[in-house]
Amino acid sequence: MALLRRVWFQIHWFIGITAGSVLVVIGLSGATLSFRAEITDLLNPIPAASAAPALAPPALVARVQAEMPGRRIATVAVSTEPGRAARIGFAPPPGERRGETRFADPATGALLPDPVGEHFFEFVEELHRWLLLPRDDGKPITGSLAGLLLLLALSGLYLRWPRRPFAWRQWLRIDFALRGRAFLWNLHAVVGTVALLAYVVSTTTGMYWAFDGLRKAVDGAAGEGRVVRAERAPADAPVTLDLARVWQAFVDTTGGDWTQVTLRLPARNGTQVEAVYLRTHTEHERARNRLYLQAATGETLRHERYADKPPLGRFVNSIYPLHMGTYWGLPGRIVMMLTSLGLALFAISGWMMYLGRRRTAKAVRAERARLDAVAVPATAGDAGQVLVAFASQTGHAERLALQTASALQAAGVAAVVRPVSALSADALLHFRQVLWVASSFGEGDPSDSARAFAREFARQSGPGLRHLRYGLLALGDRHYATFCGFGRKLDHDLHNQGAQPLFPMVEVDGEDPAALARWHDALRETFGVRDAVWPVSTAPVFDAWRLDGRRLLNAGSQGDPLFEIELRRVSGSDAVNWTPGALVEIVPRQMHDDGAPAPAPRSYSVASIPSDGAVQLLVRQARHDNGLGVASGWLTVGAPMGAELALRLVANPGFALPDDARPCIFIGNGSGFAGLRALLRERARRGHGRNWLVFGERQAAHDGFGADEVAAWQAGGLVARADFVYSRDQAQRVYVQDRLREAGEVLKQWVDEEGAIVFVCGSLEGMAPGVDAALTEVLGESGMDALIAEGRYRRDVY
């Protein structure tokens, strides 16, 4: 499928930048012709004297013939519309194909000067139909261009087909908040989709007019290609025409139900007059009726009514109105004019995106040359190198990956850059550290080149990547409904396979410098990248905080002790603020006062919100063979009250609440209640009550530390449902994932019908993959993929 998309993209791009420029000429000329008659009438008003009643065709022809003696009149066209000039067609001189056409005052029969603008419109029409080439040479070219436009429209539809095709907003919404290439692509795609039907109609009808063989085949199938031989008098017999009797017969036969009529007068030995007319309430401008009358007597010979034609015959007679849009009246003409003008928009936006890709490719080549110039040889094969893997649609992710690798090389860290399309799941077994730069395309999909890898990687199961440490830079655009969808899905799959993050995922909105600076900061701290390589750091600094409270929450529990830790800032009167769902990084005094090299800071989920007045944590003691964990032991036992520690707050946008009141489902276990509690407190503060908590612990008697607060929220209508699952209180152990399966129908309703966001906080082993499996069973694989890609599955697991 990815290969097919790439092929169609290349076809779409190649046609767009080659035939597209010529199609602009055809489109602009077509738009100019849309209101040709109205513009011509406006430029050529009939004299005021013409307010008198219009002459009947016999009198009109007599007046014109008297003014132009010796010129045979071949056709006369009149209209019941006041002020509309009569059109007189003279027979061509010997040796010529077309005769002269003149306009006449319908009230006096006086010939009018050549209409202003008529020659211009004839030029535009030849440009539109034949590109000013000889007719027989130009028609196949314009017909071929029409076919290419049809291919452009259909391939564009295929390339932008969204994951949820019935979500009409994805098809029709132009987001003017988008910037750069994202806006150009959005405008290009939406306008192309809106104009698609018009282009299908205009191109297929254009090919009908351009290719004689196609037109003859269609006409033959419709029965319109038959030639009915007109009755002829002997070659030397004079033409006998009584136009007065013919006209009266026409009026009698039609009952006066006509609005335009063209009379084709007999030539040489012809014996009949053809009257081609439109009824007063006609279906469209080409719904023509044909009445054949005896030239000498006015006797009706044959009457072919549009309404009596078979459906295919009516269709053939509707091709021109379909092409011009007049089949649907004035709205149709306006639509066809706008879509014709739209070809210029597509050409301009298409070229801008093409040139943008060329600029990006040039920048990528420059970055690759820079990387090659500072290459550091690996000393231990792949395992001694940092793999920088990128998934790029336009080249932006590749450029950032090359910049990242260059920075690592400059710091003396061996790095190798690979596109995701060149990787397999097994290839990751040969690396210990991977940095991902993952760009999302369209509505949160992987880039075309990364689709195969994404499918294969998502099918992997089990902790096969326990050895792997990774960092992830997810690129996206918040104006799309699905922000950083591929990056989030990749992070989710890496977690499920046991890989450990080097630092929290960094999500970048467009080219947000603050987000990119967080990526730079993470690389600086993890790999020692020099400051000169990146812009000035915007990461929060460590401040001095004081241990202000400590409370055991699970006395008597079968599990390890869990403490609520309360911390307050030591100095400064400025209020400390953070977004619920945030993390803290802590360096306890014991960790940097014992003379040993300082290890990486310990990270914890914040269990409180700013209005609580303090940073609260839920810290479970980590027990090892050689004693308590360094950080957890110091915080829960070793540190005296009032002890100071270094702390900084770290944003965690991947675990943030939505700005609106959408339903939220909170799932977790153990100390994972910390992150859930902060989010629930913030939801309660906002008054958003559509919340569902599913939380697991061992025993209600000893581990029910969150039950009272949740019960108070329920009583106040701020939690709609709460499921506490205590695994040791039952003969057969039940976990949160089991409760999710039991409540499957309700879960589907919340997620599928109400658009709920799912938050998971707690242990990576056991709970997180179990919840994953349960959600996949209930929602289906496609539903789960959509949940992740749309950013409605947010996890803080460890």
UniProtKB/TrEMBL annotation:
EC number(s) on file: 1.8.1.2
One Pfam family it belongs to: NAD_binding_1
Flavodoxin-like domain location: 386-524
Regions crossing the membrane: 12-35, 141-161, 182-201, 334-355
InterPro entries linked to this entry: FAD-bd_FR_type, Flavdoxin-like, Flavodoxin/NO_synth, Flavoprot_Pyr_Nucl_cyt_Rdtase, Flavoprotein-like_sf, FNR_nucleotide-bd, OxRdtase_FAD/NAD-bd, PepSY-ass_TM
Tree of life domain: Bacteria
GO MF term list: FMN binding; sulfite reductase (NADPH) activity
PROSITE patterns linked: FAD_FR, FLAVODOXIN_LIKE
Family annotation (PANTHER family): BLL7967 PROTEIN, IRON-REGULATED INNER MEMBRANE PROTEIN-RELATED
Name this protein carries in UniProt: Sulfite reductase (NADPH) flavoprotein alpha-component
